[in-house]
TrEMBL record:
Its EC number is 4.98.1.1. This is Ferrochelatase. Fe(2+) binds at H195, E276. InterPro entries: Ferrochelatase (IPR001015), Ferrochelatase_AS (IPR019772), Ferrochelatase_C (IPR033644), Ferrochelatase_N (IPR033659). Catalyzes the ferrous insertion into protoporphyrin IX. It comes from Luteimonas deserti. It catalyses: Fe-coproporphyrin III + 2 H(+) = coproporphyrin III + Fe(2+); heme b + 2 H(+) = protoporphyrin IX + Fe(2+). The keyword Cytoplasm applies.
């Protein structure tokens, strides 16, 4: 937290998922252990899940995933950490009237610690914005758990649930796609790839897939695309059960086989670039597309700390704070 503290100001906390502190098996293991112990992420009973996690997933996944992180690591750290910090700085510049900080649900800076510091500093209003445009019990609700644990029902802290069809955000994403087309040219299709969740959770009422569809629809309309020019898929499967479909990798294989040569991919479920966009989409899925006959997969970066992104988020937070004034 690098902004001078003024307890009378409202505080704004931008929360992202979290990421390892280093691209090493040890740091990745520590991060995955915290992440995958969260009941919101894996709800299996602990006597069943803990042996699988401690004896299979953590020992085997950590060294493999550490190599993937090493391939996208930036000078200042993991892309998710660097871009989230820069985004918080950009929102702070848009909101001099508030103290804007960022926190991570897993890893550092720890959400619990950041919230405790803000509570102890006596900020009268704390507005929490999870950097997930679409609500999911696996992500947004987990942030809510920590907010409730720290602030209880004091009324000091409030959290926004989603912003998947916020007009400023939709326009910022659409503008970033247009700007990318202006510089790099336009592929035959625009594929929207969102992080998946288990299908079981959607069946139980998690609104996440509906919000992905609604947001995608709004962006497609803002771009004036025909329905058959855009596709929506889900990436980042984890475990063996069915996740939301269609899957991104399977769709790219099929498109390559159908003779589609150039494709653009955008990931509006991710506020900032991270392992899942820079490695899974821009590297792994680009290779899959090539292997199946595609020529070029152009990845359109996340909004990151673009001024339009910071302005859209600042406007959301300002509205949320005004409702409580
Ligand atoms: C954008 C929203 C996200 C949802 C919904 C989500 C659900 C979800 N994720 C896992 C398992 C993993 N996700 C991992 C990385 C990761 N996930 C998100 C976002 C969402 N996850 C982001 C932004 C990232 C990247 C973090 C980074 O450091 O860059 C990982 C770690 C990487 C790996 O081991 O593959 C796992 C594991 C589950 C199980 C889940 C819902 C049940
Ligand atoms: Fe455990
Ligand atoms: Fe994830």
């Amino acid at each position: 937290m690098n902004t001078p503290a003024s307890p009378l100001q409202p505080a704004v906390v931008l929360v992202n998922l979290g990421t390892p502190d280093a691209p090493t098996p040890k740091a990745v293991r520590r991060y995955l252990a915290e992440f995958l112990h969260d009941h919101r992420v894996v709800a299996l009973t602990r006597w069943l899940w803990c042996p699988i996690l401690h004896f299979v997933i953590l020992p085997f996944r950590s060294p493999r995933v550490a190599k993937l992180y090493a391939g996208v690591w930036m000078d200042g750290g993991s892309p998710l950490a660097v871009h989230t910090a820069r985004l918080a700085d950009a929102v702070q510049r848009e909101m001099p009237e508030a103290r804007v900080v960022h926190a991570m649900r897993y890893g550092n800076p720890s959400l619990r610690t950041v919230l405790q510091q803000l509570r102890d500093a006596g900020h009268p209003r704390v507005q929490v914005l999870p950097l997930y445009p679409q609500y999911s019990t696996t992500t947004t609700a987990s942030v809510g758990d920590v907010v409730t644990a720290v602030f209880g029902d004091s009324g000091v802290a409030r959290m926004r649930d989603d912003y998947h069809v916020d007009p400023d955000w939709v326009e910022a994403v659409a503008d970033s796609i247009r700007a990318h087309w202006d510089v790099h040219g336009r592929g035959e299709r625009l594929l929207f790839s969102f992080h998946g969740i288990p299908q079981r959770l959607a069946d139980a009422g998690d609104p996440y897939p509906l919000q992905c569809w609604a947001g995608c629809d709004a962006i497609v309309r803002a771009l004036g695309l025909h329905e058959d020019e855009a596709l929506l898929t889900f990436q980042s499967r984890f475990g063996r059960e069915p996740w939301l479909q269609p899957y991104t990798d399977e769709t790219l294989k099929a498109l390559g086989g159908e003779g589609v040569r150039d494709i653009d991919v955008v990931c509006p479920g991710f506020a900032v670039d991270c392992l899942e966009t820079l490695e899974e989409i821009a590297l792994q899925n680009a290779e899959i597309f090539h292997e199946h006959g595609g020529r070029r997969l152009r990845y359109i970066p996340c909004l990151n700390d673009a001024p339009a992104h910071a302005q859209a988020l600042a406007a959301l937070v300002r509205r949320d704070l005004a409702e409580r004034a």
